[in-house]
Amino acid sequence: MTAIVRTSQLTKVYGKAPSETRVLRGVDFELEAGKFACIMGPSGSGKSTLLHLISGLDEPSAGTVELGGKNVSRLSRRERTLQRRRTVGYVFQFFNLLPNLSVSENVGLPLAIAGRTRDVERDAVPPLLERFGITGRSAAFPHQLSGGEMQRTSIARALAGGQPLLLCDEPTGNLSQKAGLEVMQALREVCDRDGRSVLLVTHNPRDAAFADLVYFLVDGEISTERVLEGPGIEVEAVHEALAALHI
Ligand SMILES: Nc1ncnc2c1ncn2[C@@H]1O[C@H](COP(=O)(O)OP(=O)(O)O)[C@@H](O)[C@H]1O
Ligand SMILES: [Mg+2]
Q: What is the C-alpha to C-alpha distance for residues 189 and 128, in angstroms, rounded to an integer?
């Protein structure tokens, strides 16, 4: 298998003894290219930390991360940033859209940053707006959007960047159930239709059920006791695994 992400004994400790917080204690994880995986864990279990380490936004205390076939833990800060830009699109709980740019400018931003011409941007952006149902909002600014529209804009932006991997950190955490469902369907399609890899972290069992594989973060490690494998993971099975693992 070709792994888009591989972590080995990934460890993160915040602070210094005696008041240190040991968040990740040796996470071994692989995501096969083209798959949609979910890592579940309660609030404070280290989900965001894990995504920060995988993307190279932060450095591990020990262990390694391979991202797109490169051991990012061995790269310089600058090379790591380049590998992240090349490989990762990020979808956040709080959207992280630029407030002074319109919807279409936000979606086109990765193209502008990559130095693509205005023509490319003009051709690439409208189909993405159309696909995510935000064409009518293209001139609006983020504060004028609903939560669902903001998140669909940020997924469109991640796709515009062309990176093979989408990292999603509680992407429905600020959405109504209906808007959250639409966002999860959009993410599922990003995997099925665009062939991108998706790594979702969440504490929401309904969201987890969209994945091909569901893992559980327990006491700083990925549980080997329970892994759910799709297609068609039942929400009930996710609840059952959470209960069995006491999380
Ligand atoms: N920059 C930081 N400095 C110190 N502690 C942190 C930092 N970031 C996160 N933590 C702590 O690490 C733990 C895991 O945080 P986080 O990865 O955000 O969990 P989750 O995303 O699962 O809610 C929490 O106890 C949190 O307080
Ligand atoms: Mg978090």
A: 13
